[in-house]
């Protein structure tokens, strides 16, 4: 197994893959409390567990039951299995042989006077991971043995050993339940052996090889990884290799981030030679590809790629080889995360923003964790619904139930007269109109046909103001504002081209009155969108206001807008402005999401 974080990538390395949606039959097997194919407690008579744990880094694939995959004999490779070229295939170690066979050279060796090697869990470019037993405290552990290629020079070997020592030191300084625990470092044969906790489970890469995750499960895993990254960043550590292979799914819903082998530690000298790329291209943030100084936003970008692949079934930037992948990271915009957006608008928008090329456009760790926590939380029945006082569709349905019951007792129902048919049609029409257009709780739908030929939902407490061809709404604290405007005919561009025009206008300073710029430090981008099934576009812009001498001043703001141009050249713009960071930013994004979802343009 070759771990992409341990050696520079070959430029012709193939990286093409895809993901399959999960099979229906396996859905019931994936219980919330246990990841798929989680290891089961073996009977005492078993020589080895039914599934070996996946260990950091470069842990091997667990032995599979006969109905999962054929066993491969140690020492003589079996025939390559047939595979779908679109199937996600994480880099795997050789299938380990249970220790009872005695086939593992080195099994039984005592390391450091206390760690008895039992069986190999996997191996990669930097070493082999063993299942071992700590004879002092009587527990199973994982031991990473340095095992480097013979062709390395003494200098390269020492660099790799230094990297392993730093990996142990780096992970040990981070205290978080989702960071693998380092127990010890033993020097054996002048080489560092890392002793760490034994995580019973599989990697996220193994799970994704069987299909995608739903939004809630992806958010649960992402929340744990985000917490681990936050703890690392507080210690001045950048992971730099967040990917599915380095995320372990253990027992009792535990998620563990592993492999700090190429982490960057603030204040320590780097171990990477100039011009050598380390990491996994498709999960590497654009600023790292460009050789710029990375920050916490770089790790969050990688987390965004992981979550996108987990929910959408395809890695957004992976191409047929590493150079093409790196070029895609720098210049390609990923497709909209349709599955994530359909499950949760906030989750889909989070993925979109995490993959922004500019670090300044990405959400911070607090917002990422808050959004993932909201998505991962199981839905709760509202007290109103539980007490039978639900509003909207539920109330209408109960009313229709009473209506139908009354009809059945009426004499005219028994004779099937036309009046009943008319009444029934009217009732059904009322039902579908109310349930389809129902605004969220605390919102109400405003029909603004007179000014903008459209309707949309607005928070009830927002204050309204209007112009000839626009309506605006502001929250009571004047922190978040929303505006919907409609132009006269004459816009010749498409929705996407019109959105790009606004992007360039902002980047040029958003000049007003022909002489004064109004925006500074602008970072803006355009993404494709849809409006009632028609092509539209979104503009996402971070900026600062300007003072009297045209210098950026004050906190950063964020503007999120939808642009739609119909066939007659009439343009609609839905714009929500909010702070660029913090809870108010998250609230503003939710306002945009709900307003966009409810927007109905009459002259589509």
Automatic annotation (TrEMBL):
Residues 47-59 have a biased composition (Low complexity). ATP binds at residue 144. Residues 1-13 have a biased composition (Basic and acidic residues). It is an enzyme of class 2 (transferase). Residues 115-380 form the Protein kinase domain. This is non-specific serine/threonine protein kinase. The chain crosses the membrane at residues 413-436. One of its GO terms (molecular function) is ATP binding. The keyword Metal-binding does not apply. InterPro entries: Kinase-like_dom_sf (IPR011009), Prot_kinase_dom (IPR000719), Protein_kinase_ATP_BS (IPR017441), Ser/Thr_kinase_AS (IPR008271). Keywords: ATP-binding, Kinase, Membrane, Nucleotide-binding, Serine/threonine-protein kinase, Transferase, Transmembrane, Transmembrane helix. Residues 33-46 have a biased composition (Pro residues). Residues 1-109 are annotated as: Disordered. Its EC number is 2.7.11.1. The keyword Cytoplasm does not apply.
């Amino acid at each position: 197994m070759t771990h992409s974080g341990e050696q520079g990538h070959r430029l012709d390395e193939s990286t093409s893959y895809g993901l399959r949606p999960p099979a229906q039959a396996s859905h019931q097997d994936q219980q919330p409390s246990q990841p798929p194919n989680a290891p089961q407690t073996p009977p005492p008579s078993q020589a080895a567990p039914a599934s070996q744990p996946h260990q950091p880094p470069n842990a091997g694939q667990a032995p599979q039951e006969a109905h999962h995959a054929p066993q491969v004999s140690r020492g003589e490779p079996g025939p390559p299995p047939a595979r779908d070229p679109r199937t996600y295939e994480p880099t795997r170690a050789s299938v380990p042989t249970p220790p009872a066979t005695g086939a593992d050279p080195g099994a039984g060796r005592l390391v450091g006077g206390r760690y008895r090697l039992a069986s190999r869990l996997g191996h990669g470019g930097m070493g082999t991971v063993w299942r071992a037993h700590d004879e002092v405290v009587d527990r199973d552990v994982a031991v990473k043995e340095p095992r480097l290629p013979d062709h390395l020079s003494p200098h390269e070997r020492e660099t790799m050993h230094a990297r392993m020592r730093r990996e142990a030191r780096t992970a040990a300084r981070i205290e978080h339940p989702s960071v693998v625990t380092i127990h010890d470092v033993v020097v054996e044969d002048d080489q560092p052996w890392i002793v760490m906790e034994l995580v019973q489970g599989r990697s996220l890469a193994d799970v994704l090889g069987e299909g995608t995750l739903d939004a809630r499960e992806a958010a649960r895993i992402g929340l744990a990884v985000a917490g681990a990254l936050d703890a690392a960043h507080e210690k001045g550590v950048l992971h730099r290799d967040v990917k599915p292979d380095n995320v372990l799914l253990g027992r009792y819903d535990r998620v563990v981030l592993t492999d700090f082998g190429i982490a960057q530690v603030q204040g320590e000298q780097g171990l990477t030679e100039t011009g050598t790329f380390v990491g996994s291209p498709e999960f590497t943030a654009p600023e790292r590809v460009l050789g710029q100084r990375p920050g916490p936003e770089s790790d969050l970008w990688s987390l965004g790629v992981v979550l996108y692949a987990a929910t959408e079934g395809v890695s957004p930037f992976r191409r047929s080889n590493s150079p093409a992948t790196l070029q895609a990271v720098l210049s390609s915009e990923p497709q909209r995360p349709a599955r994530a957006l359909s499950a949760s608008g906030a989750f889909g928008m989070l993925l979109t923003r995490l993959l922004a090329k500019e670090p300044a456009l990405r959400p911070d760790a607090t917002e990422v964790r808050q959004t993932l926590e909201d998505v991962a939380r199981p839905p709760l029945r509202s007290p109103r619904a539980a007490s039978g006082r639900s509003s909207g569709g539920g109330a209408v349905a109960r009313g229709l139930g009473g209506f139908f019951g009354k009809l059945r007792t009426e004499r005219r129902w028994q004779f099937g007269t036309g009046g009943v048919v008319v009444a029934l049609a009217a009732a059904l029409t009322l039902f579908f109109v109310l349930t389809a257009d129902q605004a969220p709780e605390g919102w109400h739908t405003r029909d603004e046909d007179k000014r903008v030929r459209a309707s949309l939902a607005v928070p009830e407490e927002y204050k309204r103001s209007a112009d000839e061809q626009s309506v605006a709404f502001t929250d009571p604290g004047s922190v978040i504002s929303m505006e919907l405007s409609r132009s006269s005919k004459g816009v010749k561009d498409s929705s996407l081209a019109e959105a790009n025009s606004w992007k360039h206008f902002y980047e040029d300073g958003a000049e007003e009155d022909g002489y004064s710029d109004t925006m500074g430090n602008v970072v803006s981008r355009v993404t494709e969108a849809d409006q009632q099934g028609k092509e539209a576009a979104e503009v996402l812009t971070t900026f600062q206001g300007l003072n009297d001498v045209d210098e950026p001043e004050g906190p950063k703001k964020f503007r999120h807008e939808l642009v739609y141009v119909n066939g007659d050249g009439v343009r609609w713009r839905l714009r929500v402005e909010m702070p660029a960071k913090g809870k108010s930013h998250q609230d503003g994004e939710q306002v945009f999401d709900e307003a966009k979802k409810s927007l109905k343009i009459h002259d589509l």
